Each structure stands twice: as C-alpha cells, then as structure tokens.
TrEMBL record:
EC number(s) on file: 3.2.1.23
Protein's name in the database: Beta-galactosidase, putative
Domain Beta-galactosidase galactose-binding residue range list: 152-208
Organism: Ixodes scapularis
Gene3D superfamilies: Galactose-binding domain-like, Glycosidases
Transmembrane parts of this sequence: none
BP terms from Gene Ontology: carbohydrate metabolic process
Family: Belongs to the glycosyl hydrolase 35 family.
C-alpha cells in the first residue's frame, strides 16, 4: 500500500439511527468489527464522528427525521434542541467505540492535542455562542478594546438585500483580500477561506439553504490574520 498505514472513515449518523431511537450497529454499520478488521490488517483508523460529515452524504450525514424537530437554520449552531440531539447521539456512539481507541488496545487513534507542532496542556474546549446579537456585541467589545489587531478574533457586519430581491439564487462569498479564517452567514458555517493559499477561494452559498433573511442579514468571520502552517502542513513564512 505504498507505505500507508492509516485509513479514515466517517461515522454517518443517518445510517446508524435511521429512525429516532432505532440504532443500527450491525452488518455494514458495525463500527467495532470494522476497526477490528483494520487492526487485523495492521492498519490504524481515524474515525470522523461528526456529527456533520460534510457534503458527501445527504444532509451532511444528519438523519432526515431530525429536520422535523430542528429548523434548518439551527443546525450546527448552539440551538438548544440541536445540542441536546447531538449530545444524545454521541452518548450512544462514543461508549460503543471506546474499546477501539489505540490506548485501549484497538486500532483507533487518540493522542495529545497539538497546535502548529506544540502540545497543548490542560486545555479545554468551549462553544462560543455567537448566534444572538448580544453575544456578538460582547465579542465586538473585546475586539475594540484589544491592544493589537494582529490577533485572531470574531468580526461581523450586516447587509440588507435591495427591495424586490427577497429571493436570491445560488451565489458566492468572495474573500479576496482577506487573510485566513472561517465565514458564517446568519449563523451557518460556509467554511474556511484563505484566498492567498487556497485551495478554495470563493465560498458557495446554495439558494436551497435560504441563507438570506428578509431584511437584515449578518456576515460573521472568525478571522486569523496569520498562520504558521497552511492546509498542507507547509510553513507559510
């Protein structure tokens, strides 16, 4: 296999829970057996548990029934119903695959968290609530009072559609001239931008997501003015 020793695989929520509370971990959805088979072939496994697994699957891997209880615009946000559903799903999934972790004798990989080659000690991960205007205002107060503009931070701005243009077709966000970060429209994550390095330059906004509200819409960015490594692991300086 040309020296390769690791495979990566999504964990698709919609396949493992096709109906609410009806879990499926057998046959092609037997994750534990999948990891054991990889171990027998002397392969390591990176399980990408999501819950969002990008565009290769319908709804990004979210079960279709989830749309009966959560508004489309509240997916992948700090919406209470979405967070509770995600926590319940991960509570079912993670105990099942714990025994496959490398440190427990399995083939799955777990290890220290690193940032640009430095190991992070005693770190915690918290959700930053930027859905409500009041939360964004608090972030903006911090940005206005900081001593240096050359540090990561949240930025946001508002725009209004011209009269008579309440329905917008497919369009793109063009970050030309920006540096490096992640863009959101009305709380929906459009993805990363890094126009100078690529690989993507413009960010796609499909009409089906109805990202533009009637009246005022909000563009937010988690902006990093510089980065030591690009997406391919090469030094940027």
């Amino acid at each position: 296999m040309a020296g390769l020793n690791t495979i990566a695989s999504y964990v698709e929520w919609s396949g493992h829970e096709p109906q609410p509370g009806k879990l499926n971990f057998v046959d092609n959805y037997d994750l534990v057996e999948f990891c054991k088979e990889a171990q027998r072939e002397d392969l390591l496994v990176i399980l990408r548990v999501g819950p969002y697994i990008c565009g290769e699957r319908d709804n990004g891997g979210f079960p279709s029934w989830l749309y009966n209880t959560i508004a489309p615009g509240n997916f992948r946000t700090t919406d209470k119903v979405f967070m509770e559903a995600t926590e319940k799903w991960l509570g079912e999934l993670l105990p099942r695959i714990k025994g496959t972790f490398y440190k427990n004798g399995g083939s799955g990989i777990t290890g220290p968290v690193t940032l640009d080659g430095y190991t992070l000690e005693g770190w915690t991960m918290e959700v930053v609530p930027v859905v409500e205007n009041r939360d964004v205002s608090l972030v903006m107060q911090f940005l206005e009072n900081r001593s240096s503009p050359e540090v990561p931070g949240f930025f946001h701005g508002r725009f209004t559609l011209p009269p008579g243009e309440g329905i917008i077709g497919d369009t793109f966000l063009d970050p030309t001239g920006w540096k490096h970060g992640v863009a959101f429209i009305n709380g929906i994550n459009l993805g990363r931008y890094w126009p100078k390095r690529g690989p993507q330059v413009t960010l796609y906004l499909p009409a089906v997501l109805k990202l533009f509200r009637t009246g005022v819409s909000r563009l937010s960015t988690l902006h990093h003015p510089s980065a030591l490594l690009d997406d391919f692991g090469s030094l940027t300086a």
